Structure formats: C-alpha cells, structure tokens
Amino acid sequence: MKKLILVALVIIGFVGCTKDDIFIEPTQSVKPELQMASSVGIKLETVFVTSEVAMNIKSEVAQTATIKIFDIANKVVSKENVNVKAGDNILKVYTSALPSSAYRIGLFDSMGKQIGIADFNKIN
To answer: pLDDT tens digits, residue range 19-72?
Structure first.
C-alpha cells in the first residue's frame, strides 16, 4: 500500500499543472513589486513569465472574482473563480501549460464587470 501511494505521488508530481490548475490560494504578504496605490485592480510581479508569476488582486470588498487569461487573439484560454477578501490577495499563476506568446489577464467582479487588466509574455 505504501508503494502504491508513493508511486501515485511521484506520478502526480511529474504530471505538473494543466490549464485548469492555474491558481493557488492567496497568501498574505505583499512584495514591493506587487503593491498598488489604487483600491482595486490587478498587478503582476513581472511581465516576462516562464513557469509561474505572482499576482496581486486588490478588491474593495470580499467577493468571488473571475480571472480570465486571454491569448493574443483575445480567446479565453483559462478562467478561474477565486474568493478574494477586501484588500490585497496574492496568488501564483502557473503558466507552464501555456505556449510561448503574449497574454492578458483580466479581473472581473462578481457582477461580470472588468475591474483590472494586465499583460504578460510567456517565454521558455
């Protein structure tokens, strides 16, 4: 039984993330690169991304927000609902499943209104 669990963990570890596994739960600390003066919006740690990038989602109220990643043709390649609290919400965006290209991340409030946008370039 122990070998079966170990094998399953090893296989899961090597599979990596898929397009549906883009985000993880928010953390609390805010690096200077992610701080925002505005009360609402989205900011990436860097615009050049290899396998992951930190992102700050800032909200005025606690809500379920939607994050969409658009490709260069403005097609949605990933969509994720996240529960955010009022203030800063730091997430990691895993991009290893995305091909090298230019992308845009849009932040939408619980009513579907766009409240933030950020561009990034996925490089190998």
So the answer is: 445 554 554 568 888 898 888 999 999 999 999 999 999 999 999 999 999 999
CATH architecture for residues 2-122:
Sandwich (2.60)
Contact 115, 40 (CB under 8 A): yes
Return d(Cα 71, Cα 17) in angstroms, integer: 18
Largest CA distance in the chain: 53
Task: Report how far Cα 64 is from the mean position of its chain's Cα atoms.
Answer: 14
Closest-CA residue to 78 (of 90, 86, 69) = 69
- How many Å apart are CA 90 and CA 114, to the nearest integer? 19
Contact 85, 59 (CB under 8 A): yes
What's the pTM? 0.73
Amino acid, res. 114: Q
Contacts of 18 (CB under 8 A, 6+ apart): 97
Mean pLDDT over all residues of the chain? 81
